[in-house]
Each structure stands twice: as C-alpha cells, then as structure tokens.
Amino acid sequence: MFRGGSHFREIIKDYSIQEGFKLKIIRKERNRITYKCEAECCPWRVHGSPTFDRVTYMLKTLRNMHTYLSMTKNRDANSIWFGKKFEAFIKENIKVLGSVVLRQCGINVPNHTLYRAKRYALNIRDEDHKQSYNKLYKYRHIIMENPNPQIPTSFQRFYLSFQAQKAGYL
Q1: Per the confidence metrics, is the pTM higher than 0.90?
Q2: Which of 7, 18, 80, 145 has the lowest CB atom count within 10 Å?
Q3: How does strand 45-50 pair with strand 57-63?
C-alpha cells in the first residue's frame, strides 16, 4: 500500500536505482501506473492503481524477475533524487558521498551531480527563511495600524538574533 500515486512512483524509482535497472513507463494515467524494465527481453513489470478510497495506491501486479546484468549508470539518479535521498549525509560531508553512493547503489556519480544534490538539499531549508522574511512587511503593517489616532505609532527598530548567537551570549 502507498500513500498515493506520487509515493508509488517514488518508491518504484528508488527500487529501480537500487537494483540497477532503468524504468520504462508503459501506462501513466490518473487511475493506474505501469512500469517495466527498459531492457527488451526482461520480464520485470509492476502495476499499481488506487484502492476504493481513490487516494491510497496498491501494488496490483509484480513480476519480480530480471534476466540481464545490472547497470552502474542510471539517468533517474539525478541531483534532486540524491538531494532527497541523502540530504542529511550531504550536509555532513560531500567528499565521501560518491563512494557511499557507489557502495550502496552501485552507481558512479560525477562530482557536478553531487554538488547539485548538495545545493538542492541546502536550498530546501532556505525556502522557510524566505517565507519568514516576507512576513516582516505584514508585521510592520499590523504595528502601524493604530486603533487610537491620538497616540502616535512608529516603527523604530527591529532586532534579529540567530539561535547560535543567542546560545553564545548566554
């Protein structure tokens, strides 16, 4: 059982990269998704479709037999996939990531892909900061709205402190 169609596709993609084969989409509709191995003579095939609730996906067919050698290069293993899969590890150490990916997934990854994956993993967190800065204008507007016109209101200062600075001060 899967949380939805996107979760089903994500898990199947992870599995194909892990097992060393390339996926080919046979059918990708709203109500069903079917993949097969890209190799012509390989019988591997998977089919999923929604259950009665129309949200949860279920694996309906799985022919789990491969008749070829696995490959060490896979175009599905792009920088976004690496960023999601190895986010915590990328943040810690980029130098050994290539060897770990080769050992775990059996894929040789160029350095520029690893750096793009690192950039993707780090930019995920930056989106939260960008959204919080946009809230400053709304905050200023709330302060400047004065329910009592006899009392003047002014926005004089803004103090910003990062957690590391606060901890160092304390």
Answers
A1: no
A2: 145
A3: antiparallel
**How far is Cα 160 from Cα 34, in angstroms, rounded to an integer?**
51
45 neighbors 12 (Cβ within 8 angstroms): no
CB 168 within 8 A of CB 161: no
Contact 38, 23 (CB under 8 A): yes
Q: How many CB atoms lie within 10 A of CB 109?
A: 21
CA pseudo-torsion sign 145, 147, 148, 149: positive
Separation between Cα atoms, residue 64 and residue 44, nearest integer Å: 5
48 and 2 in contact (C-beta within 8 Å)? yes
pLDDT digits (tens, 9 = 90+) for 101-154: 888 888 888 878 888 887 777 776 666 666 777 777 777 777 777 667 676 666
For the domain spanning 1-71, the CATH number is 3.30.200
Largest pairwise CA distance in the chain: 84
The domains of the chain are located at 1-71, 77-146
Q: How many CB atoms lie within 10 A of CB 44?
A: 20
